[in-house]
DNA 5'-3' helicase
Amino acid sequence: MADAVAAVIEHGGNVLVQAGTGTGKSLGYLAPALNYLSEHPSERVVIATATLALQAQLAGSDIPAAVDAAASVTGRTVSHAVLKGRSNYACLLKVRNGAGHEDQSTLLGAADLADTLRKGAADATSVLGAEVVALREWAEDEASDGGLADRDGAPTHTPAAWSQVSVPVRECLGATNCPYGGECFVEKSREIARGSQLIVTNHALLAIDAMHGGTALPEHSRLIIDEAHELVARVTGAASMELSPQQVERVAKRCLTWLDDDLGLEFLNVADDLGAALLDAPLGRIEDPDAEVIAVLSLVADVSRRVVSALPSDDPDAKQASAAAKEVHDAASAMATLKPTDVVYVSERERFGRWLVLAPLDVAGLLRERVLSRTPTVLTSATLKLGGDFEAVASSVGLRRDERDAELDADGDGLTWTALDVGSPFDYARQGILYIADQLPTPGRDGIGPEVLAEVAELLWAADGRVLGLFASQRNAEAAARHCRAELPGRTILCQGDAQLPELTRRFVNEPETALFGTLSLWQGVDIPGDTCLLVIIDKIPFPRPDEPLMQARQQAVAQAGGNGFMAVAATHAALLLAQGSGRLIRRLSDRGVVAVLDPRLKRARYGSFLRASMPGFWQTTDREIAVSALRRLASSAKDADA
């Protein structure tokens, strides 16, 4: 891996590297990157990750260790920094302009007070107020001590509390216009990054940098994208817009102070108009330019444009309100345009009702033209080969089949790419079994059936509770948990939604005979080595919902171009999740266990071989007794080890 990464860093091109869990892929790209930066001190390398957890691991552990090791060899120390989006840092304008209205901290320190209130029966408003006070005190301490007021280092808080001390990108006044611009934490973080050779950031900021002409990241000559299997989803999210009646109403109320009565009332009224139009609109994609909701969006765009023009520019609060109104205008205008490259659709949430979403039909072009064409790039993950090949992932980021292994031009430029699977230290065929329950009925849309519930309970009994259950929906997870609690009353079965996910995961790890059932957030990024997890249950192949507008639109686009929309979109999506979900089982060389897929289509359907080829190379069986016997032996050994 290090050789392949070094070739791209030194000579150009792009490389996709699949490096399984346990291979040490962070060092596989850090070693050649640090060697290059030691020899070229004026150059800069950016590493983009999907999750804050890996960002923190890199910045706090992997990079410092690798930098020290490289320095001992080269005699040169490479400077490094972390760069996050603006809303991850406290805003001194919000901290100081909003301060002075709380008196909860007169007797106790604010952080102690917040903790005391949280443990007691205090109302949510009191807890929120105490958290905000604690955050303001912490931000002032960071300003005094020369810190960056990064959210990761903040006192315990809720998202609502953090919103009181941070500012969205659009509402920032800019360092030159802000009275605290000289102390700005974001500007300080940018300054540190500009003076560093190695920068760790995230996929979302990389996407913003691509969309806005390279303004979010310092200029860099090489790019490494870790967790690259998540890149398309993260870039899609960063390029999407949302608009709801509640958002329009909230922004309208914020702007009323500076508006005349007629314009203020008009802004409030269009929020109601949007809510009524959404109630009348069908759920799903909007394609008719004459639809009522499109006419209302045009009205929202017009009114919000006039509001922006009417707000004064010499008042900091008015400028921030204007930025919020401009965001409403931009979203409404873009949605009303109905570009063929966008998917605009009506969605619904149980608590907040209906709202509108605009998502890009495809991000491959953006990644190709504004990322991969500009910077030699390494894309790496434990999951890049889907169906046994790199083509699906390569295509999703804008790399074409005919460019694979092509020659670079004389300047080292050109969109050529290579691919490498460095394998895994695990012997999956010896360490794990893939049990496909092909005797069960094909899953339907009516939730989890009685035969599947019985199978879940029997497997959980065999594994002595040491089970991670990955379900297609929250409803299925809850139904399975209820059934197993009734059938196995002595077992502790945790279900997503019972408590915060970090707390549930902690209990699952620390209580070996406990089972944990959940949905999508458990499929990726949960590391549970050892005998805590002997069995991973997957109730259903994780295809996207057939009525999911963006996936539907992407499938149709592939079909219209002459391809197979189902295989290119739905099957590829399912393959990625199956690879990630089944990858939860084997995390160490000593791990053993079973992955049970309770969907017979994995064996019977024509696309089944594609999906199985995307999963780790477990020994496969359709015999329930083999799986149950293996689990009983493993559970007995685990219990003896615990004793």
